[in-house]
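Notes from the 1:1 (GR / supervisor)

We went over the backlog. Supervisor wanted to see one worked example end to end before approving the batch request, so GR pasted a single chain during the call. The sequence is below; no edits were made to it. Supervisor asked that the structure be written out right there so they could see what the output format looks like.
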Amino acid sequence: MEVNKTDNTKRLAKNTIYLYLRSIFCLIVSLYSSRLILQALGVDDYGINNAVAGFATMFTLVTGSLSSAISRFLTFEQGTGNYQRQKQIFSISLNLMIGFALLILLLAETIGVWFVQTKMTIPTGRETASLWAFRCAILTVMTGLIVSPFNSALLSHEKMDIYAIISVIEAILRLGLALFLTFGKYTVDRLILYSVIWAICTLSLQLFAISYTAIKYPECRFSLFFEKKLFLELFGYAGWNFVGNLSGTLSGQGVNMLINVFCGPAVNAARGLSYTVQNSIAMFVNNFTLALTPQITKAYAARDMDYVKYLTYRGSRFSFYIMFLFSLPVILEAHFVFSLWLGNVPEHTINFNRLALIACLMGLLYSLFANVQNASGKIRNYNLAMSLISLLQFPLAWFFLKLGFKPEVIYVICIATTVISFFAAHNIVKKTLGYSYTELMEEIYLPELKVVLCSTILPLLSVVFLPYGWWRFLITGSLCVLCTVPSILYLGCRQSEREYIFRILKNKLSLFFTVFSRNND
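Structure output shown during the call:
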């Protein structure tokens, strides 16, 4: 068993490295691409694209829930080693997704087109371009549904290298499109051109993922299959995930629609830009949890609860540390970062970004525990509680925006509901995992609190007392790293974890110097 855990740890480390290399590359490319696209499209068209694309994703409420169910069931059967069951799950999942893709096409061309034309705030003369953007977004949503069982199979087999390669190619294609929009010569409307070309790029990447998975894994091939019991199991699990996805969509894209109605596309653009930075930083955390989740599910399938606890506690702490390390300098120097990135920063962008990063950090205090609940299959109470709390964001946002509050109020509401979700989540998950609040404080939250307090003081003093500019930005950024990294190692890690990190670094440095010396010889 210890050998298996060692192999799992090595595989986790390897997969995390693949995903982090992908993230570093994609982060740099994504930020530059977003700036070029904003300049090429303009604030209004950028906001329109953000709004209609968000509306398009609302059609995936049911199918998003089913995708989560597919991933969980495939990974669980990987843990049990039941190949035939994996094949059956994949077949019925692919058939269902094709059916749902056709249904979404029907709904989008009726209800969707009507909503875009009559209810959304679209500047005069941009109605045709907004419909093109909407239809291209629907096309990517439909193909995304069909490819989702293939992506779930890749994740269940922990093929993070392929996942990383696809993401890198996607980033390169987006950069190429951004450069073409900015410097190319053409007569076609830029928003229409951007939407069509990006839909083609996305479709090409999805076809690659389908081809690779079908060739690599024999169980991932199309076949007509239906089993009532399996169908009910998938939809029973997906049904409660649907409640969670509904609340997530209303609190995300639903609030985006409210911003469009009450504040206009320029504020949609500010929200989209702030989320670009937030998602770029969160990508580093998502890589870690993406590599960790299959192991949690497989360990639960093997009923190794001690290992599930070990993975969950350590994963929760390190995901918070990673997010905090990258978020702190951006929160403190948001004005400089956005001015450097965009030049002309849309109103509300900086406040949106700071509040969104704080909300994201608070969500990491409990989010990984959802993976344990998902692995158990007992998701009804958890998803119902989380959904009811999250659903509060939509009516509260409508109420306060209707009263004339500034759009920043939506993030204040998000932070408040996140605090409530924290207590509700642990009250449910502790019955599954069997832990106490004292254990959580010792294993997770006290180390995290020490890291936050010791890392923030000096950088904050730098921002308060030094004049705005390059020197303050460089000093603050350096202090963030110099304070946060030692705090994580000596206040946030156990001795065994610290020794493991030092050992990995030592081995990598030794390998580097060995290769370097050989090349010189």
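Supervisor's comment: Residues 215 and 221 are 8 Å apart (CA to CA).
Batch request approved.
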